[in-house]
Write a structure and sequence with these properties.
This protein is mainly α. The protein has nine helices and no strands. Helix 2 packs across helix 3 and helix 8 packs across helix 9.
Length: 197
């Protein structure tokens, strides 16, 4: 296909400045692909894949760019040290530390891990308590299971594919991912299907 040909119906288009924002958002792109287009359009490339995608969509549509993500808080802030309990207050600039991990595993169980909702809670809620954080964990389990962060889509796809295909190889799973990401997002009613073997 030369540069001026239209892609076949349903085919993933090339990632160029000719796309509009809606079409950009319909497809899966690697961070490397998005960064290359941002460089070509002379756009800031920082802030992670989600922020970069939003920035590119706005630029391709001729809309104002979204505000840059807030700068990370200084890591020199005082951090909690053991022992901690449910009444311990989260200080400004607290990181998702081993002290917090140990406390949450004691309170929640071995399934605890710092996912996006918990990292955001710790970062955005100084003054709240660790008991509030435990409640937040339980309140967000359904959301966390149903809506993985976009940057983890590949890992989630591989895990789900191997659960459905326990005898499948990694090469088969990666091939299934390539097929999955070659389709628009709105063509995926679920992650994979009978044709993903």
């Amino acid at each position: 296909m030369n540069e001026h040909q239209e892609p076949a119906a349903g085919a993933r288009p090339p990632l160029t400045r000719a796309l509009d924002g809606e079409e950009l958002l319909r497809w899966y792109w690697t961070l490397q692909e998005l960064t290359a287009l941002a460089r070509e359009l002379d756009l800031p490339r920082g802030g992670g894949k989600l922020a970069l995608t939003d920035r590119l969509a706005a630029a391709l549509d001729g809309r104002p760019l979204p505000p840059p993500p807030p700068r990370r808080r200084s890591t020199t802030a005082a951090q909690l040290t053991a022992p901690v309990d449910g009444s311990t207050v989260i200080p400004e600039g607290q990181r998702c530390s081993q002290v917090l991990r140990a406390h949450f595993r004691q309170e929640i169980g071995p399934s605890f891990h710092f996912d996006a909702p918990m990292r955001a809670f710790i970062a955005d809620n100084p003054g709240r308590t660790l008991a509030d954080a435990v409640r937040h964990w339980h309140d967000t389990r359904t959301l966390a299971a149903e809506e993985p962060a976009p940057q983890f889509e590949f890992n989630r796809f591989l895990r789900d594919w191997h659960a459905r295909n326990p005898d499948g190889t990694r090469a088969q799973a990666v091939a299934a991912w390539q097929t999955h990401r070659s389709r628009p997002k709105d063509a995926h009613p679920h992650r994979g299907g009978p044709d993903d073997h």
